[in-house]
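for ur thesis appendix - Bifunctional ligase/repressor BirA. copy paste whatever u need, i formatted it the way the template wanted (i think)
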Amino acid sequence: MLDNDKLLFALNSRDAVSGTVLGQQLGVSRVAIQKRIQTLSDNGLPIDAVPGVGYRLPEGVSLLSEQQLSATLNNQLIHSVSLFQSIESTNSYLLTQPIDTGRARLCVAESQSAGRGRRGNEWLSAPYRNVMMSISWGFERWPETITGLGLAVALEVAEYLRESFHVDVQIKWPNDLMVNGAKLAGVLIDVGGESTGACNVVIGLGLNVHQPDWSQGGAYQWQDLSGLGIRCDRNELVSGLANRLVKMLSDFATTGFASRTARWNSLSEYAGKRVRVLGVGDELEGVMRGVDEMGALLIDVDGQGVSRVVDSNVSVRLS
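the 3d part is after this line
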């Protein structure tokens, strides 16, 4: 059987490689190579076919490797890694897996056909260019605040990017990662299990690494690491983020969000600014005062005191 990792490793070369040579290296026929390359191309892998020479990947494409990821992950906490060339949704996949209390599963994909964002929005991402990953964690009982958990995830990702790449990342409530007002990454939290017992929390992270053909239209302006002058190996990026997140998840059941409140507020994009909150019935307008120890959004409404917003599905915009 043709091994995708071996084929992708062979393609990830500066020079073009012929189908015949690839077949000899991998012990399969040239026709098998051609069919698999066509499948990968259909999934969105930008393979250049050079007539009379062979195949190669464009400069700047770094491929994910399950072997490389497994070698750099915290295997005491992350006990399984699944890497897909194409999948509907990494979050949806992990929601089907058994609950393992106090342990994590990691799912990474090169492309998604049904990626999801908050509030039912579609998450679009160029295949083989960005980070599409999900981590599941088994809790003995539901966390006291799912909203607070989402905020804690955004905080860990923001701090990791700031420390590793010196990117001035801020957080737009509840868990969008922003740079200069443009969206760099988003977080989606799903929960499965009985409300009275153990649960499986699945954290989805979409991070723009390189979006060469990304449209700048629509409600959001988008940012990627490449546009900030950052070049990185996506395997190192995924493992670094995963290791950071599982460390937080391992103690969240006892520490909760409260100990992270001040850190989150220090990175809030809208703290101290006048905002509108949409989707809470009557529209709220006032000055954002950060979040409280449960992760609730605090809005200082003119003449009415401070209102708490706990529904993470609302939309917050500058007035």
